[in-house]
Amino acid sequence: MEAIYMDYNATTPLRAEVREAMSPYLDEAFGNASSIHTFGRWAAKGLNRAREQVSEALGCRPEEVVFTGGGTEADNQAIKGVAYAYRGKGDHIITTQIEHHAVLHTCQYLEAQGFRVTYLPVDGYGIVDPDDVKEAITGRTILISVMHANNEVGTIQPLAEIGHIARENRVLFHTDAIQAFGKLPTRVDELGVDLLSLSAHKIYGPKGVGALYVRQGTRLDPLLHGGHHEHNRRAGTENVAGIVGLGQAAELALAEIEEEAGRLASLRERLWHRIVANVEGVRRNGHPTQALPNTLNVCFGYIEGESIVLGLDMKGIALSSGSACTAGALDPSHVLLAMGLEPGIAQGAIRFSLGRGNTAEQVDHVVAALQGIIEPLQATLAFQESR
């Protein structure tokens, strides 16, 4: 069998339709979207169309969409932008212990600048309690940032409830929806968010392009200073071809979201049930139903996840032991530790994240390969423990 890719949460391949939409803006329509001549107007037309496509997926106004250089930049812009713009009102930020490092490291940076950050715990499924959010709010709280769905275990957070709490207390609410966008409905009014981060390369678009939804009336200090681009919210000549690709990917994802979510959830459960039936000592991490349809995170006792990933890679199967942004780190996943797993167990986690290219036949092949890797490792571990 040909190589099997099951690491779609790390990145996705560029869809043919997206490449086709981008192509004119890499060739004849190469102009600067800020130029007033014909070439600039061609570029601006593509930029405006993409803004409409993203806003349609979010249920917001086109002018509330700010294009960025990726999801990490969008997270940084949201958190730092609000922190500095509202510093006169307060200096307290609320987030969770399981956020992506684009959020956690940004908050830690702000702590070094004198801001105060509360990192809320989660339960054994990785869900934050909205009551904990409510109790953490003070008169100095200016921002709440809670991810929509976790990139490692797939657990979905109760954003609508948290959004209601934020509105009641007149606190701005940001969500990192980078893993959720295109897989789950992300209508900003239904979620109750004021800011939302997303990325193109998680939805079969190009790398290096993202967007930040900013509710009208929300003040932001810009990360980048220079020109008037993006309505003075993000200086720098826009990556028009990449942005066009993001717009096309968003439109395709919105059109297919329900059907593809059902297909992926079915494959995910097939994968889980076949693993349970064929491999001993397996544990599922994250919520079994309130989760991304494509994500399955499991542990196999005290076997190191990296060993399993490398073994599968030698068989032509690509997956990960956690977030791609922490690949190579020796410490157990901060997400799994926050969920209460012992470090030795958490060290053994692997993540399957399925996508458009996966089939039931591939799932069965992967389970057979996994069984062939796990059983010798378990036998070795049992021998070592018996000595």
Topology:
Layout: E1 4-5, H1 16-26, H2 38-58, E2 65-68, H3 71-85, E3 92-96, H4 101-112, E4 116-120, H5 130-136, E5 141-145, H6 159-168, E6 172-176, H7 188-191, E7 195-199, E8 210-214, H8 229-232, H9 240-278, E9 282-285, E10 295-300, H10 305-314, E11 317-318, H11 334-338, H12 343-346, E12 349-353, H13 360-386
Parallel strand pairs: 1-11, 3-4, 3-5, 5-6, 6-7
Antiparallel strand pairs: 2-8, 7-8, 9-10, 10-12
Q: How many runs of DSSP E, i.e. beta strands?
A: 12
Global outline: globular
Helix content: 40-55%
- Helix segment count? 13
Which percent range describes the beta-strand content? Answer: 5-15%
Q: Helices and strands, in N-to-C order? A: EHHEHEHEHEHEHEEHHEEHEHHEH
**Which runs of at least 5 residues are low in confidence (pLDDT < 50)?**
none
Mean pLDDT: 93
Any idea what the CATH superfamily of the largest domain is called? Answer: Type I PLP-dependent aspartate aminotransferase-like (Major domain)
Q: How would you classify the helix and strand content by structural class?
A: alpha/beta
Strand order of the largest sheet: 2-8-7-6-5-3-4
How would you sum up the major sheet? 7 strands, mixed
Instruction: Please give the CATH class of the largest domain.
Output: Alpha Beta
What structural keywords apply?
seven-stranded mixed β-sheet; globular; Aspartate Aminotransferase, domain 2; alpha/beta; three-stranded antiparallel β-sheet; 13 helices; Aspartate Aminotransferase, domain 1; 387 residues; 14% strand
